[in-house]
Write a structure and sequence with these properties.
Radius of gyration: 42 Å
Distance between the termini: 26 Å
CATH superfamily of the largest domain: P-loop containing nucleotide triphosphate hydrolases
Keywords: ATP-binding, Cell inner membrane, Cell membrane, Kinase, Membrane, Nucleotide-binding, Transferase, Transmembrane, Transmembrane helix, Tyrosine-protein kinase
Order of helices and strands: HHEHHHEEHEHHEHEHEHHEEHHEHEHEH
CATH class of the largest domain: Alpha Beta
GO molecular function: ATP binding; identical protein binding; non-membrane spanning protein tyrosine kinase activity
Helix content: 40-55%
Structural class: alpha/beta
Number of helices: 17
CATH architecture of the largest domain: 3-Layer(aba) Sandwich
Shape: rod-shaped
InterPro entries: AAA_dom, Bact_polysacc_biosynth/exp, GNVR, LPS_length_determ_N, P-loop_NTPase, Wzc-like_C
Strand order of the largest sheet: 5-12-11-6-10-7-9-8
Largest sheet: 8 strands, mixed
Number of strands: 12
Membrane topology: Multi-pass membrane protein
Catalytic activity: L-tyrosyl-[protein] + ATP = O-phospho-L-tyrosyl-[protein] + ADP + H(+)
Strand content: 15-25%
CATH topology of the largest domain: Rossmann fold
Number of domains: 3
Amino acid sequence: MEEQLDLFQLARILIKRKIAVIVGILIGLIIAVSINIYIKPQYEASTQMLFSQGQEASQNQPIQESYQAVLLSERLAQTFSQIISSRTLAERVIDRLKLRIAPEDLEKKVSADPVKDTQLIKLTITDTSPTRARMLANVYTYEFISMTEKAVHHSPLVNISIIEKAAVPSKPVQPKPVLNLILGLCMGFMLGFGFAFLLEMLDTTIKETEEVEKLIGITSLGNVPKISKPLLLDNDNDRSSESFRSIRTNLQYLNFDQSIKTLIVTSPNMGEGKTTTALNLAVVFAQAGTKVLLVDCDLRRPMVGKLFNRDQSKGLSNILVGAAADAGSTLLSTDEEGLHIITSGPIPPNPADLLNSGRMDSLLADLKDQFDLVILDCPPVLGISDTLILASKADAVLAVASFGKTKKTDIVGTRDALGKVGARIVGFIMNGIPYDKRSGYYSYRSYAGHQAVSDVTR
């Protein structure tokens, strides 16, 4: 099972990082094509020579002596193959053909290899010209035989004969286009594989609901796909609306005893969708017949009034400083029946002090009596204390994480910070999930919240 899980995770990483894999493969193919284009073709021409003893074995010669004669011929072939690659022979060939090339450069073109279990030597010349390769191979052979015969003083014990002369090669041996492309493809895949895992290791953002659940030990209440508009006031059946209804259902299961009257919606950092989540949860609860109040408690960067296109000159800050008689004077209606809002009001210089005041406690108590559910759109948890102050006063907290944006360390830090003030975190949601992916790995599932409900009701 563990092996299957590892292979499944490997496949998911490759699918998730498919761009990196494709880039790696393209790099490998580009290198292979470049080699095929820019490397000069190399041609090989070969001759074969037979080395044997000049004196034939008689019929009465013992078998052991015949075997020793063959063994001696094989050793001679090995010795002569070293002579073929020598500088002396290269200089003889250069003088013979009047070549303008250094002996060491010519030596690099020559190879001589004894053919295994035979008395043959194969002499091979590699050159960019097929005709020159043939000429060099044949001249090398003639010069070698001439030099060898002088060295052994025409001894009848050594016989060298040409078995096969060199012919003009018809096709180059290098480069090998098909082989290079296959090797380039393999190298590119390994390179892309490495890129994919490097990016996976460097990427510390969250992308899987299950991963976050294991990381912070808090249940997911659902996923929200990327949405084109912040407010879903229409009662349609698209995936965005359905996702918020699913989260609403999960919250209703959690709140079966009606213990949650004030719900904080927050996130680790800015730009992770906590205000959009708060607005749309307020809308879907109102659509279900709940009397809902949405309060903009972000007294630093308020957004609720702007998104509802309402006047923000009078709101929460007015109540907390005593400039408003009561909450009723700041209530604003919306286009959704059953939903009211209180904007932030003028931005004060001391938001944390106002939120930590006795007037805030009294306000929350009054609002609980007037509404079925009060949703508090609060600032991000990390970096400022505003939300932590309110978390100790509210009944529950809903954390919002953003797909591919929220870091694992930040969601853990948010849980720890809220835990220190005794906040009740009822769950989290993943915001901005891509969908309509062919792979299905990131595809949004309309019933993503079903598992959360199951976990709650166990």
